[in-house]
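README: folding subset

This subset contains proteins for which both the sequence and a predicted structure token string are available. Records are stored as plain text. Below is the entry for RND transporter (489 residues), shown exactly as it appears on disk.
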Amino acid sequence: MPSLAGRLPRLPRAVLAPLFAALVLAGCATAPAIDPAALPVAPVAFKEGDGRWTTAAPADAQPRGTWWKAFADPTLDELVERAGQANNSIQTAAARLAQARALVRAADADRAPQVGVGAGVTRGTEAGAGPRPGTLISTGATLGYEVDLFGRLAGASRAAALDARSREALLQSTRLLVQADVAQTYLALRALDEESALVRDTVTAYRDTLSLIERRFNAGDIAELDVARVRTQVASTESEALALDRRRAELEHALAVLVGAAASDFHVDIADWRSALPVIPAGVPSTLLARRPDVSAAQQAMLAAQARVGVAKAAWFPNLSLTASGGVASPELGDLFQWSARSWGIGALLSLPLFDGGRREAGVQNASAELDAALAGYREQVLVAFRDVEDQLSALRYLADQDSAQARAVAAASRATVLSSSRYRNGLVSQLDLLDAQRSELANRRQALQVRSAQYQATVGLVRALGGAWDAPAGVVGTVAPGQAAVGS
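--- output ---
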């Protein structure tokens, strides 16, 4: 068998030169390495932590847990379950994941042998056979396989698989986001129920005061100015109660959308606020942050973009396709399956594009730009994740102190109201002084409710920032009843 070197003089060197150049540079088709200096550096500890926080690589496969059950509220549990089954954002994310997985199978199919069968009939003339037309009937099977010499198909398959993993992480991120939105909306609604009850109790007290003032005015004991002041206070407090009702209706409608229900058919009964407030321990490690699905999705998208750079570079190198066919062909249908009608063929095609007007170079530049954008997106997502944790940790710390201070303010305002009421009955202070004391107590009680509501919101926000439920040594995690302070860091 003659050697390849012996055949070289018979082939145009201008054709062989690009082929050899491609074979020599085949190693350039690999995806570029990511510079570690371009990745965000994780802090040794969170600013709001106690020094026991640790760092770890993303671990998106770990379960997020049923973290909302820590609030010990059956209504919240039911709403979260309904949202998991009927929320439209979750269903959209699930459909996107199914689409990405189908693309993975399509990419893998390009790496497998392609088998097909076919049959055909042609009629026409052949060169050297005369002008008389003839008919040719054929049937057979074909086999094709592209040899992945430079990893183009493998790179495309890997990129598609990473895209699917990114979509899976985005689905988890959507679930976590919806769960957190349901919890925060529901807890805000319960806080409004509590606040509305307080305001309506105040309206009732103001109305009783108004009745007393009107009787005294009719008896000629006080001036009309005192009556006008109390009527103003009653009307303004009634207006505040109606504003709270409007806000509650809006939150209820938002919950309906989150659980996939029509707002017209959805209702959450007014009930006492009995949700427990979980205490997230100070020593929760930042390995939980590594489970944030949005961080994982950004990382997988970055790796997919990296793989596509290698795919774009592989377009510079030749493709080798192996083909085989077998079947029968005959001008007469009766002779189609005779042994003499058999036909077969095998072949190999090595193709190398020489000039494409810069298309392949543009493809490499496009893939490189996508990698740069994905790297920047991943870096930003990690930084945002650390910011979210710091925000919620600091919020919980400050809210705990604010809750204690507000509790003292409520106690002092309540005592001031009692003393003012006693002094008013004894004629030592005016009606205006009593109303001022009552307004101060109402404002402080409402402020205390709002601080407690903010603690619930920050707790859910921290769970979301950490990527789901936390794991802690036995005896560390606890709950506190509504109204008690919770230390979050």
